[in-house]
């Protein structure tokens, strides 16, 4: 499955902090019903066997919706379970090394905070960039804030698609217009909401509106 700009419009990153007795599977299904265009499985504390089991179930679910499914950080599991790809941070692994492990047809996303990091990731074979935190965020205590100027400079410096991440909500997404991004990645703006389906629909509409205001 290839990575195109449309597919990166509304990129949902999972988080089991807000399950409240629900399964991650059902929350992801609601996000897909609401129109999420990309799913990243992000698990920091799950043991290998449960992670694998969950990843395989979610891969099937995403395939049914024709939405790319990638794994956060864990290149070994992504390769083993044949995910559509992986998203790695600056410290996780060079994009070139990931490409060598996963092969030419997998999606590789790389987090970047500076123009230099962005250019390097593109040169090493990244398919898209996740740039942030564009707003202050509670989900990553160590995330550096990235200014609108830097976000725009990164979009201008690379040919691959760029999505913004970090603290994005339906209320501030319009502030990203004109930066050159092709979509947004969110965690709590979808998964912490009481009605995930309508929150996702609403966020998607706001994002499309933001992209129209070039």
Automatic annotation (TrEMBL):
Pathway annotation from the record: Cofactor biosynthesis; thiamine diphosphate biosynthesis; thiamine phosphate from 4-amino-2-methyl-5-diphosphomethylpyrimidine and 4-methyl-5-(2-phosphoethyl)-thiazole: step 1/1
Binding of 4-amino-2-methyl-5-(diphosphooxymethyl)pyrimidine, residues: 40-44, 72, 111, 140
Textual note on the cofactor: Binds 1 Mg(2+) ion per subunit.
One of the Pfam families matching this protein, by short name: TMP-TENI
Cofactor or coenzyme needed: Mg(2+)
BP term (GO), one: thiamine diphosphate biosynthetic process
Enzyme class, broadest EC rank: transferase
Residues holding Mg(2+): 73, 92
Organism domain of life: Bacteria
Reactions it catalyzes: 2-[(2R,5Z)-2-carboxy-4-methylthiazol-5(2H)-ylidene]ethyl phosphate + 4-amino-2-methyl-5-(diphosphooxymethyl)pyrimidine + 2 H(+) = thiamine phosphate + CO2 + diphosphate; 4-methyl-5-(2-phosphooxyethyl)-thiazole + 4-amino-2-methyl-5-(diphosphooxymethyl)pyrimidine + H(+) = thiamine phosphate + diphosphate; 2-(2-carboxy-4-methylthiazol-5-yl)ethyl phosphate + 4-amino-2-methyl-5-(diphosphooxymethyl)pyrimidine + 2 H(+) = thiamine phosphate + CO2 + diphosphate
S-adenosyl-L-methionine is among the record's keywords: no
Residue ranges annotated for the Thiamine phosphate synthase/TenI domain, each copy included: 10-190
HAMAP family: TMP_synthase (MF_00097)
NCBIfam families in the cross-refs: thiE
Function: Condenses 4-methyl-5-(beta-hydroxyethyl)thiazole monophosphate (THZ-P) and 2-methyl-4-amino-5-hydroxymethyl pyrimidine pyrophosphate (HMP-PP) to form thiamine monophosphate (TMP).
Full protein name: Thiamine-phosphate synthase
Source organism per UniProt: Fusicatenibacter saccharivorans
């Amino acid at each position: 499955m290839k990575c195109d700009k449309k597919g990166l419009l509304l990129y949902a990153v999972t988080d089991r902090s807000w399950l409240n007795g629900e399964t991650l599977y059902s929350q992801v299904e609601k996000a897909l019903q609401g129109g999420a265009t990309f799913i990243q499985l992000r698990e920091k504390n799950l043991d290998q066997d449960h992670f694998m089991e969950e990843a395989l179930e979610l891969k099937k679910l995403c395939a049914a919706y024709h939405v790319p499914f990638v794994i956060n950080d864990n290149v070994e599991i992504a390769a083993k379970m044949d995910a559509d790809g992986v998203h790695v941070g600056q410290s996780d692994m060079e994009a070139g090394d990931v490409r060598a492990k996963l092969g030419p047809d997998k999606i590789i996303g790389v987090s970047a905070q500076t123009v230099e990091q962005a250019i390097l990731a593109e040169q090493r074979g990244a398919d898209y960039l996740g740039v942030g935190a564009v707003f202050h965020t509670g989900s990553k205590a160590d995330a550096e804030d990235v200014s609108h100027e830097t976000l725009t400079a990164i979009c201008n410096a690379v040919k691959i698609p760029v999505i913004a991440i970090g603290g994005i909500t339906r209320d501030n997404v319009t502030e990203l217009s004109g930066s050159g991004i092709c979509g947004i990645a969110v965690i709590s703006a979808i998964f912490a909401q009481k009605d995930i389906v309508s929150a996702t629909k609403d966020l998607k509409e706001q994002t499309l509106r933001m992209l129209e205001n070039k």
